[in-house]
Amino acid sequence: MNHSSWHVLPLAALLALGLASAAAPLAAAAAPRVFRAGAATSNVTPPLGSSINGGFQDVKAVHIHDELHARCLALDDGTTKLVLVTVDNCVIQRSIFDDAKRAVQQATGLPLENMLMSATHAHSCGTLTPVGQSEPDPAYQKFVAQRIADGVRRALNNLAPAKIGWGHGEVPQHVFNRRWHLKPGTMPANPFGNTSDQVKMNPGVGNPNLVRPAGPTDPQVWFISVQNAAGRPLALYANYSLHYVGGVGPGHISADYFGAFADRVQELLGADRQDPPFVGLMANGTSGDINNINFRGDPARKPPYAQIRLVANDVAQEVVRVARTLTHHDWVPLGVAQREVTLGLRIPDRETVEQARVVMKGSKAYPRMLTSEEVYAREAVLLADFPAQVSAPLQVMKIGDLRVSAIPAEVFVEIGLELKRRHPQSFTVSLANAYHGYLPTPEQHRLGGYETWRARSACLEVDASPKIVAGLEELFARLK
Prior knowledge:
Strand content: 15-25%
Number of helices: 10
Distance between the termini: 63 Å
Structural class: alpha+beta
Radius of gyration: 26 Å
Number of strands: 23
Mean pLDDT: 94
Low-confidence stretches: 1-21
């Protein structure tokens, strides 16, 4: 054996290994980070004859004015994928969202907590959750869960190199606090036969007894703008704290201003007839006590859909104005944090339930309830079978410096404003991932009014909002 060769070969091999290992991190450092995005829609329109919820009395669909959709946006920073979904519906119970998420996870491996799904709160959509006197069709519930999952999978299929930006504009002219203080002695009786409420919801346009609104509004419209690598608009996800607009035709299915905004922003961005198609999304912000009625304004009624188009156009115009000033980033980090919070429910006692049964049986249209007293008696009887506590999902998503929080309720605007004060680069999505009714602050609870009257749509404990805000603060801290 040539001993000099025996020494040289390992040395050469070691040098080669050293050079290779030194080159590896250089190559990795040189590899560009790629941000990707994809979007898609999935039709969730119910058949004619379906139940429409959103009021004390059930309504049946007689016409489809515009189709309903699950609108889906997928984001990918190379390590983490996030999905944001808005569904044209009034309220969606947790089991439907969970079924959709499980279907996506089983097909793609995407973690359940990486999906934020919310209802828009349009009051002219097919019933998916028992509320008022409307009951959902189980077949429609199953159909919508599958269609949401299909939309998410299609958005993931469309992932491609993209750029992303975010910002906000101001649209103050369409948001009004709907809870009002009235002149002493003019408060009408509530469904429980007393005048102890200090505020009235929707007191009537031009009511001479108006004193002042019971809370503020939030004029901001936040949005996330996504472009493809060449700068062409790919999707835009917006968030505005407006309950809904209404003013649709009788028995009409419609996505309200949420759908009209999606269509109008696409038109204003010049993003029609693209492949893959542009997707506009409008999520409901913190609008539990905010609507589109100027109670000190003109009482004249507009033709059906006129106000919807006006609001959608004004919000879309402002979003596009701001979007044209944004810097879109080639890459931003993504993240998500989620937790459950336990909340108590305000369950009626046995005596209240027995009295409610008597009121129900007095209805002239039994088993249908006609008066507000009868409707709330029925709610008490139904609530008696509810558990004492519920587990509510809370979620915060990180998109670069932006934070998107999600609450499964109709969140009062005061709560959203407080979260924005604490986290200026953030907005909140209501009716997200589940549905637990109205979420007033403890201070608003003390004023009474419709949103506090005990019902399946308003049964969370008085101190629910501080618990939710504390839970969200923990999630914000995790994502620092």
